[in-house]
Amino acid sequence: MSRNAPATPGTDPAMDLVPTPVGTAGVTWYPAHGQARAVALLGHGTATGVEAPDLQALAAALPRQGVTVALVTQPYRLGRIRTGSDEPSLDAVWTALWPLAAAPGLPVISGGRSAGSQVACRTAERLGAHAVLALAYPLLGPGSPKELLATGRPTLVLQGTRDPFGRPDQFPALPSTIELTEVPAANHTFDTPVTTARSTTMALITSTTSQWIDRQLARA
Fold it and tell me: Mind listing the domains of the chain with CATH numbers?
């Protein structure tokens, strides 16, 4: 499995093709630099795949903090098919891939963006996630507060202040285990007006996530 093989500078990491009950999924590994402290298993949303800027920014930043990142491409997107994007299918794929992330015996941070964050929320307690990372959680429409409030794990939500699927001020009262961080002027894909540099937004996302993961691992 390529999760332990360092990527060659200047090249894209290889994607492992993994059979699941729903079809073949893709897992792209970004190994931790030096001794690994945790694994972050992250999924994509419905509008974009793992090429989403926030997922790529985390895949570049977290390994430097000793966190191996595994980006999951769901079968429906990998095969460009119409089926397999329903909740039971998404959760079944996540469950099938979980042993790969848990195999090193390290804490696993379960997360993703939009629909991927919903999958992480729904399965976190059952699969034994150490914590949950929710990027652009779709509070309105496809998501619901119920999924987020039921993670049963420490959870970090990163939410754009212009997200049409739920602005930070539209979230219900959250328990102390769920932290909500506003991403100024960002929409659902964390795009911002031209006056705000994308690099600034991505730096906020990566630094906030890194610091939060450090706190979660300190309690391990």
Answer: 2-218 (3.40.50.1820)
Structure tokens of 79?
A: 């095969």
Q: Which residue is listed with tokens 């997922």?
A: 55
Question: For residue 10, what pLDDT is reported?
Answer: 41
User: Which of 177, 131, 184 has the alpha carbon at shortest distance from 159?
Assistant: 184
Per-residue confidence (pLDDT) for residue 129, from 0 to 100? 98
The residue written with tokens 């042993």 in the block is 99
Q: How far is CA 77 from CA 43, 49, 80, 139, 163, in A?
A: 11, 7, 5, 23, 23
pTM above 0.90, yes or no: yes
Average pLDDT over residues 188-209: 91
Cα(74)–Cα(85) distance, rounded to whole angstroms?
A: 8
Q: For the chain, list the strands marked E by DSSP.
A: 15-20, 23-30, 38-43, 67-73, 108-113, 131-135, 155-160, 178-183
**How many CB atoms are located within 10 Å of the residue 42 CB?**
28
pLDDT at 83: 63
| In contact, 133 and 120? CB cutoff 8 Å | yes
Composition of the chain by helix, strand, coil, percent to 5: 35, 25, 40
pLDDT of res. 166 = 96
What gap in Å lies between CA 93 and CA 108, rounded to an integer?
16
Helix (H, G, I), strand (E, B) or coil at 82: coil
**Pairwise CA distance, residues 79 & 186, whole Å:** 30
User: Which residues have CB under 8 Å from 45's CB, separation 6+?
Assistant: 52, 112, 113, 114, 115, 116, 136
Tally of CB atoms within 10 A around 187 = 16
